[in-house]
Amino acid sequence: MLAFDNSYARLPERFYTRMDPARVAAPKLLRLNVPFARKLGLDPDWLASSDGVAMLAGSAMPEGAAALALVYAGHQFGHFSPQLGDGRALLVGEFEAPDGQRYDLHLKGSGRTPYSRGGDGRAAVGPVLREYVVSEAMAALGIPTSRTLAAVATGERVFRERILPGAVLARVAKSHIRVGTFEYFAARGDGEAVKALADYAIRRHDPAAARAAQPYRAFLDGVVARTAALIARWMAVGFIHGVMNTDNMSVAGETIDYGPCAFMDDYHPGTVFSSIDHQGRYAYANQPRIAHWNMARLAQALAPLLGEDEDAAVASAQAAIDAFAGLFEDAYLAHMRAKIGLETAMPDDALLIEGLLAAMAGQKADFTLTFRQLAQHLGEGPMPDGLDAWGGEWRKRIAAEGRNPADISAGMDAVNPLYIPRNHLVEEALTAAEINGDLEPLDALLRVVTAPFAPQAHAARYAAPPLPHEIVEATFCGT
Ligand code: AMP
Ligand code: MG
User: Fold this and answer.
1) Closest protein CA for atom 13 of ligand 1
2) Domain that holds residue 88
3) Which ligand 1 atom minimizes the distance to the CA of 118?
4) Mind listing the pLDDT tens digit for each residue in 134-163?
5) How far is the CA of 479 from the centre of ligand 1 (A)?
6) Is the dihedral of CA 217, 219, 223, 228 positive or negative?
């Protein structure tokens, strides 16, 4: 059994709505993430039992759990929505894992809440399994993320463009406090709530900030640093979140709220997959700028806590936000250097990396495979297509480090994945699950993307880019 606590429920009542679980018609476990359950100190057998599945489906709450729908606001595509919230999700409770970390268990697709607006509170099996496979791939890549504990079929139908089978995703994250949670209270002029939320977030996510000379500024600095580090990691693997609204940005610096997310196949900085992102606001190359903008929204919400008077507060907020670009650039360069086999830092490295990306864009080179190929082209001989001129510079730079080529290529292969959840493979797996109830393709895909660096037997098709007729141009939120 799980020992739940819910510290969020001890915050003032205007932070959430307590929810009775909605009864789900016929919950059936689709997949339980057994290794992850074990890592969390949860008993997989109990989770797979009828009591466990009832909890994972949101039908029954275990002891100590006080299911809550959290309220928040958010800038959606740049426009402020003063009230959003868990419209189809519930925070079941918090528990402590054997590593001492406190986690939230959160259910998505568990039914309507006071924040559902026009929505039905449900999730369809396709988007639930997309989040499962992509979040687990992200975790295997070492990228901070919410993780998936289980996917449960509800036995209910969900009405979208088509009628789809319903599902609930049980996910685990360090936090469900978003930039938008702060914005919600700030926009209402509820300074007391902003302070209570910041104190709570500091206690739970940034205990060191409590001991700083200016705890709220230290907290803001921490969020800025974590977010810059996170986006640098996204960029280094070609991940596109798709809906970087401020309500989808965790203050714990984890990737959360997977919607129409995807990994890029051929490199193009303007790549967008989300069917709702008509302006390309959340295109691949815009992600750092958008994250920076989102941090400015957080700083604005926290500003009253940042100084004695308004001028001091604004100056402090500005200084915190201004750190973003440098933090991002340093982290990004560190990842990109490692990706091309460099251990030391030289002043022209940024130019070298830009040169590679420009050549890749011109060549429509596959983002993931190009870095794997480079590891095999350290020495003499022709470079991959279109990279000859760049390759000359790169080899000189590599040679200047004087390291053993076998070590260099092994180091590159340890940071450059061979397997990512490519969009066409994800679609194939989701379609099989949705239409035929066949989870084999999903299992096969999970097997490769959860061990993404070393070649696996019989897995060549999972490493290959899509053939022209397989390319998936658009992804859908499914909301
Ligand atoms: P998202 O962009 O998916 O993070 O969702 C934005 C907002 O819409 C959040 O407040 C969600 O809770 C809400 N929402 C999304 N889908 C649904 C749904 N099917 N029913 C109710 N609310 C939803
Ligand atoms: Mg969201």
Assistant:
1) 87
2) 7-179
3) 21
4) 999 999 999 999 999 999 999 999 999 889
5) 6
6) positive
